[in-house]
Amino acid sequence: MSVKIAADNFQSCPDGGEVRVRRYEDERDKAAVEEMERRCEIGEQGKTCLVTDLLGDPICRVRHFSSHVMLVAEYGERREIVGVIRACIKTVTRGNSSSYVKLGYILGLRVSPFHRRLGIGTKLVEKIEEWCKQNGAEYSYMATDCTNQPSINLFTRKCCYTKFRTLSMLVQPIHAHYKSLHPDVAIVKLTPKVAESIYRRTFANAEFFPKDIHTILSSKLNLGTFLSMPKKSLPKWDPKTGNNLSTSYAIVSVWNTKEVFKLQVKGASKLTYACCMGLRMLDTWMPWMRLPSLADVFRRQFGVYVMHGLYMEGKYASRLMKSLCSFAYNMGRDDDGCGALVAEVGHMDPLRKVIPHWKRFSWSADLWCIKKLDNHDDQSNCGSLDWMKSKPSTSVIFVDPRDV
Question: Do 39 and 83 contact (CB within 8 A), yes or no?
């Protein structure tokens, strides 16, 4: 990679200490970064929150992109690691089939609780933007929960980002029982080649559809792409080419995060814990009641399956998508380490009302903020104006599972 972070890149903080931003080195920094991230507060004290454990590799969240980087911030004479930030470069659609854009995705910004309000987060963002520009990105964007006001203030007020799109994160916990599938629905597993062909057609006018979709579909973390259609339409469809597709169909791919990170629920009240434990005991004693009891997510870590590339069309679209969600749920049920099924969709996407989820575990406002990295007039092949100022051409947004 071509990023150039000067070895003597020191800047003074308001308290007189010096901050040095440099590239992450695995053997040298791994233990210190893991310890620093453990100290970081995730969620407000006294409230239920999900704690993420990156499995032995602090940079694993971005390794799945060909162009990626991780920077650390060192503070003071002891050069203590007090901050970290990650980014990757990808090429995606911007709402028109003839228009792709190269952008940087910024994630994993953490600053030690003992070194906040010193401008360290701002310095890390500035340096990661510099790397994004050096690698050809026209825009950079980040995602955060709408309630994370410190993060929103940092990016929108100090770093000049604009609030861009709002998405919904839908979570369905896995419990002890399988879900039944509709008897009139056929579900078939697609080859990566056929899946790519269908995706390029269905997401042609969507935003954030990745140009390297084939990389996602052929990844070992992608458990498969599945298509549902009415059984009466199945004989006409050609599974080798994807031709003669039914006018009513739904499609979804399932991504396994277990090899990248695991989650654990912390901060739950004693009442919540007691209710969940009671439901599990009842389910054990009276399994015929099929209670939607939770696994013990408070004392053990669990992985999640991410449903991505969700799309539905036609008269029976809702029924077909619900069947696919049940199918993916049953896949998670067969995996002892899977604790939940997750999907992220556009706030106005009709899928939001179709995908089964628990409101208590979901959140309806995942905020994406964006920034233009150059000062040139942004004219795409079709002559559209700046992406930041344009309205979305469709309510469908493709959420890259590598970002979740």
Answer: no
